[in-house]
Structures are given as C-alpha cells and as structure tokens.
Amino acid sequence: MHKYWFFKGVSLKSLAPYWVLLGALCLTAITALELHYKESRDVEFAFQEKVRELKQTLQVRMKAQEQILLGAAGLFAASKSVERDEFEKYIAQLKLAEGFHGHLGVGYSAWVKPAELPAAIEAVRAEGYPQFTIRPALPLRTAYTMIVYIEPFAGRNLAAFGYDMYTETVRRTAMNYAVEKNTASLSARVTLLQENDGPVQAGMLMYLPIYKKNYPLNTSDERWEALQGFVYSPFRMNDFMDGIFHTNNSFLSFKVFSGVIRSRDKLLYSSSEQADFSRAEYRNQDKIELYGQIWSLEVINTPLLIAERKTHLVKIVLIVGVILSLLLFLLLKMFSGQRERALTLAEAMTLDINKKNRELKHSEERFQLALESSAMGVWSLQLSDNHVQWDASMRALFGLEDSSELTNYESFLALVHDEDRQRVFEEIAHAIEGQKGYDTEYRIVWADHSIHYLASRAKIIYENAAAVSMIGTCWDVTERKRLDRVKTEFVSTVSHELRTPLTAITGALGLAVGGALCELPEKAKSILDIAYKNAQRLKLLINDLLDMDKLLEGKLEFHCEPQTLMPLIERAVAENKSYADQFNVRFVVVPSNIAPQVDIEDIRFLQILANFLSNGAKFSKPDTDVVITLTQDNGFARVSVIDTGVGLAEESKAHIFEKFYQADSSDTRKKGGTGLGLAITKEIVERMGGRVGFVSTLGEGSTFYAEFPVVA
Ligand code: ADP
Question: Would you call 320 helix, strand, or coil by DSSP?
C-alpha cells in the first residue's frame, strides 16, 4: 500500500513539467490574443478616424466650390451687366486649373423667356459667334436656359456653349432646387457634354442662381420672377476626387454613389479599381448630404493601414512566450529527472541496505551459533557509565542464573579471584589507555566457591579518537589449566626423581672420563665421553625443567637489589666464552659510558644473559661477532645481544617465548637446546619487573634484549 502511494506520487509529479508547459503556453496565447484585440481596436479606431477625415475633406472641398460660384455671383451683383471679357478675366484670376483638379471651369447660363430668346441669341452672335444657337432648339418651351459663358472657353468646354441644361431632367432638378431653396445645389450623376474625348467619367454640376437686381427674393415665386440665370461649375468626378485624395487616401479605398442606392449606374467615383470591397478587414458605409444631394460612401481599409498600425508585438510575445515556456519545461524536466533519479537511487540504496541488514542478521546468527557451540561469551563495557552487558554464555561462564542482573564493572570485578582482581583491573585500565591489548587469563570464584579459569580478549571501540567502549569475548580454560598442572606436576616429579641419580651418573662419568679412576683404553674413553656429554645435556634439561617448574609454581624466590649492569655483562661474557669458542664465535662488548642501576638479582641476570649469549653463539655463522650493548632509554636500561646469524622466520616470531618452542627443531637439535631457555628468560625478566623483546630478520641475524627500570 505504502509502495503504491509512493509510486503514484512520483508519476503525478513527473507530469508537473507538462502541466507547467501547458499553463505557460495558454498564458502566452491569452496575452497574444489580448494584444491582437487591442491592436485591432486601435486599427479600427484609426480607420474610422480616416473615414471621418475623408468626409470632412469632401465637405470642405464642396464648400470651396460653392465659394467659387459665390464669387462669380458677386461679380454679377457688383456689375451692371457682366460682359464676356469681364467674366473671362474674373475666372482666369481664380486660377482654377492649379488648385482644383477635375473642375472644368465656371459657366453662366442665362434664364430666357421665350419672347426674349431671339434677341438673346442675336446678342451672342453679335459678340463674334455667328453660328451660336440654343440647343436643343425644339420643342418650344415656356422658359429657356442658355449657356452663354463658359470659362475657360476652350477644349471640352466649347461643347457646352449654347446648351439648355434645363431640358435635361437631372440638371433641371438641381436648378429647380437651387431656386426653390435659394442656395447652391448639386446635381445627381450626369454625363457631361464635355465628355467628348477619351474615357467617359461620371460628371456632376453645381449651380448657384443669379437674380436681377432690386427684386424681392423672399419666396420661390419671387425668386423665379427675379431669376436672371445660373453660375455653375461642371466636375469630372474621377479627376476631381483624385485631385483631392491623391496624396492622403493610401490608407482607404472608397466608392461614392449618387443617392442612397449603391448601384453601378449610380457610381460617382471609385478610388481603386483593384480593391475588393467584399474582403476588407474594416468597412464603413455612410451617407453625406451636400447641397441637396445625398452621397452614399462605401469605405474600406487598404492593407497599408493594417501594415502601418500593426506592430510585431503579437509575434514577439508569441515567440518569446513559446521559447520561455519551453525553457521552463526543460528546466523542470531536468529537475524532476534529477528528483526521479534521486528517488531511484534512494530506492536502490534502501534495497541495498535491506540486503545488507539481512546479511548482517545471517552473519549475527552464524556468529551466535559459533559462540554457542564454542561456549564463548561476549561482553561489553560502556566506559561513560561503567555499564556492563553480558550475553547468556557469559552468565553460564560465571555460574550465574540467566535471570541474574550483572550490569556494572564493579560487580564483575567482585567475581574475580582476590589474587587476580587488581591485575585484571590494571590490564583493563592499560587497554583503555591504549598501552596494551587486552589478552589475559584470570580466575573467578563461583557462588559454590569453586574456582574457574577464564581467558578473555577484548577490543577498544573509539569514537572521534576517544575510547567509548570495550567489547570482548571470554571462554573457560579451567580444563586446559588442569591438564597443564598435571603435566607440570608430572614433569616436576620426574625431574626431581631423575636429578639425584643423574647427578651421581654425571659425577661418576666425569671421574671416569677425567681418568681419575684408571687409564682407559681409547675406545672405552670415547664411549664414556659421549655418555658424559649426554648426561650433562640431560642435567641441563632437567635443571631447565625444574627452573621452569619452580617459576610456574612461584617457588623461585628473587633477592633483588640495585646493581650496575656493565660488570655483570662482562662476567656473563667471560663465563660463556668457552661455549662461544665451540662455535668459533667472538663476544664483543661495546664499551658504555653510562652506568645505570637496576633492581635485579645478579644470579638471575647472569642466567638471562647466559641464555641470550648461548643462543647468539649457537645460531651465528662461524667466525663472526656477537655484539653486546648497554643502552638507556625512557627510564629503562637495556642489554642487547646482537648476532648476524640465521635470524627468525615471520611465522616463528609469535611463538619464540613459548615453552619447548624451537624454530627449526632439526637444526636446533643439531646444536643442542631444550626450547625452554627463552620461556624461562621471559619469566625471570618479568618477575624482576623488566621486559624482553627481539628484532630479527631471517638470514640476517637477531637482536634479543632485556630491559629493566632504572632506579638510580
Ligand atoms: P633452545 O634451548 O632451543 O635454544 P630457546 O628457548 O633458548 O631454546 O630458544 C628457542 C628457539 O628460538 C630456538 O630453538 C631457536 O629456534 C630460536 N632462537 C633463539 N635465539 C635465537 C637466535 N639468536 N637466532 C636465531 N634463532 C634463535
């Protein structure tokens, strides 16, 4: 169950980068959309502003046209009668061709009653236009208009000369409107008479009525009565509009229709033939009223307006947003990857730890089994509070009930034999101080007063270089001790029993070999000689055995007193010289200028040196020196016996002080010896408060030494 949730958690979390990516992309899309809408609103606003400007421009330009006509009307008002050349000059002054594209000029059409028509025609003819007549002449009508002046009087405009515009419906409507409303008026779409050359454009006319002077003009009837004629302007729409907008219509395409219906035949102007009015982003359909005419406008934007107004901000936001989202995603993916790897690692480590725990448990079980089968106890001592922990085997070794409590060091010491307690206490203290390893034997006394021998070894556990506890094993050696004792007693008894007869035998043989009894034949002498040497060797062995026995039994007594060592060294060398001679070896004492005093018994010290010297001679090559030195170091005086003989193999070194141990028994036997010398030496040195030791390299030689605390 736990594991299930663990993995579920991991898989959900591993999706996190994808969620973040989705979120970041959505955010980017929303921001980009917002920006897009804002930009679109801005563009639309700009478009509507342009449309407003367009309408305003149209109105202003038409107003300017009206001003031109009003100026012409002013000329008529100011002058008694406006002659042709006056009119021409006035219009020429306006320089219409320069500022008013599409504006074909300004004309004057006289309002003529039928009775006055012939005279009016005649008057124009008299001005030098004999062909002049009114067009159309027929049908006869109640009133005529007749274009008398048209400036500039040239080109297309000549086609209009004499034309009666009132005969044509569209023009008549505009003229009527001008008089009825007493205003300037615009015509609907017409085809101008001037369209006599090139492609035909839609046309338009603006009229302003001229009244005879001093006539009342308040009502339309009065105005019709007072009407003298019309000043007017014809426009070619394309030229006119292009003239107005050629500079500033690049953002818009538009069509102007005459009237409210947007049909092809009503089209006054289209700014662009190519523009597709059905596909524009922005569109405006509006009307404007101009001098009695309604114009319908259809306006769309050009791509330039969009290009001009739209920034690249949306694109930038999109690109940057997508890049950042991806980066974020990659980062998270990397981190979550690391996290997953860490989890995998942790899982692997957990598995590993579990495996190791299992192995440890198995090993513990095996160890426990080994302990149980060897009847070995395990104990530990916590140094901070002297707390002792024993396993069941320890209790059995100490003859304690399983349930009995033994928790501290003092209760352990109390179980140790009175004679061994202090020593055990000191050995443990030395081990804790790091002076010596803990490897000992001691006696304990059970509740039934029986004495048991235990051997124990321990290790110190350190934390941060400080000893914190001690852990050790313990096993029973009572039986081994008993067997040792039996053996020792046997050897001791045998040795004692042998010594007396052997002394007699050696004495007798000595006498015989020395020739004290009689002159012996050579053969008998050599046999007795062999017998004598072997009897002596046997005596040596028995003496050693008895010494050993006495030492172990504690029967050997030491009478120590402060001694200077050098004289004793020289005495020992002298006493053993003959032995060295047998091996053709020299003893060389290195002179010393120190004279430390040590607390020893001289006879025992000579015994120690005799052993070192005899070994030195025995294991040296012939014709070599055995060097004896006396040194002092660290409060100890040390006597060393240095040879350049056979040396010791590594595997022998640990056993050299054991009883009856001989490194190479065949070789040693050749040279004689019991294997007890060093064991006795060690025992004697230690009983006198000293230490023995050696340094040896196989084939190169050995140095054996004994050292004693200096007392003065
Ligand atoms: P042994 O009577 O056999 O000399 P020891 O106890 O004196 O008995 O010596 C034990 C053994 O130690 C010897 O048999 C020998 O193998 C080795 N030994 C002692 N001293 C030396 C030495 N100076 N050089 C090499 N081996 C030595």
Answer: helix
